[in-house]
Design brief:
single chain; alpha/beta
Length: about 290
């Protein structure tokens, strides 16, 4: 485990010294994804579920920060007068990106602005963030600073979850070399579930399901594919949800990002959307940057 931790730390240090286009290449690298997958697997095999979750969070948090075209810094790395402004802009950017996510398209309210307006607002916020960082003196030292965003502590995350919605549960997925793992986080509970999956077959079903959902003439082909995906991805963890769960915040991983979990069949024959309110997170730690659900 220590070797993988050292490798991940060195990787994150290297990642902080390159420009945005190079960081995007880091984020899309298969060997980097494999490194984190093996780190999660090792921590799991050693009976360290919270360390495994932290490893999953580290991988996702940094990829998500890269997608923001900028970095988060330690609170004390910016002058006090700029800290609140930087945090507020980043929070607004994340809220807009969540609204623009394809998986959340059906959840937008009629009163929400159109996607085009949301994209313009996001562009304006990106410009504001760059300007705020320049004023705070962060842009000049960017190349020498490591990405400082750390995963939330489990207790802090659960406290935040209680504040937002006491009936909510986070389900965070991670891929392993030979299967999947999910971290089920309730306001007062934490459990890791691990199961074997034919990842190649599952990937094929996920992309087939995506294509069928886009095809108005898919007909009877859709149900069996959705059932296979649910059998591989949802059934192993469904019984582990805390009693009273009404809202599920899903943080997918890898190609699981392409699964519209709402349409997956539940054990009672209905779809998950009939049983839960479902939302998506880039990673569990981003919950700290979001406001209460609308």
């Amino acid at each position: 485990a220590e070797s993988y931790l050292t490798a991940a730390a060195k990787l994150e240090g290297l990642r902080s010294g390159v420009d945005q286009s190079q960081r995007q290449a880091f984020a899309n690298s298969e060997w980097i994804a494999d490194l984190y997958s093996r780190l999660i697997s090792v921590q799991t095999s050693l009976g360290r579920p919270q360390d495994a979750w932290q490893a999953a969070e580290r991988a996702k948090a940094r990829a998500f920060l890269d997608s923001l075209q900028g970095r988060s810094f330690k609170e004390d790395s910016a002058p006090a007068q700029f800290q609140s402004e930087l945090k507020d802009i980043q929070k607004q950017m994340i809220e807009l990106r969540v609204k623009l996510a394809p998986e959340n398209g059906g959840a937008r309210r009629d009163s929400d602005p159109s996607p085009e307006v949301l994209k313009r607002q996001l562009g304006d916020l990106e410009a504001q963030l760059a300007l705020a960082r320049d004023r705070a003196g962060l842009s000049r030292s960017r190349a020498s600073q490591a990405i400082a965003q750390q995963p939330s502590a489990l207790a802090d995350l659960q406290t935040r979850l209680k504040t937002i919605d006491k009936t909510a549960t986070i389900v965070e997925f991670a891929t392993l070399p030979d299967g999947l793992t999910a971290f089920v986080i309730g306001p007062a509970s934490f459990e890791q579930i691990v199961w074997k999956v034919d990842m190649l077959a599952l990937a094929g079903d996920v992309f087939t399901l995506r294509g069928l959902l886009a095809d108005q003439n898919s007909g009877d082909e859709l149900a069996p594919v959705a059932a296979r995906v649910a059998e591989s991805v949802w059934k192993p963890l469904a019984a582990k949800l805390p009693a009273g769960t009404q809202r599920i915040l899903i943080a997918p991983a890898s190609f699981l990002n392409y699964i519209p979990f709402q349409v997956l069949p539940a054990a009672n024959g209905k779809q998950l959307i009939d049983q839960f309110v479902i939302s998506y997170l880039p990673s569990a730690s981003t919950l700290a940057l979001l406001g209460p659900p609308g």
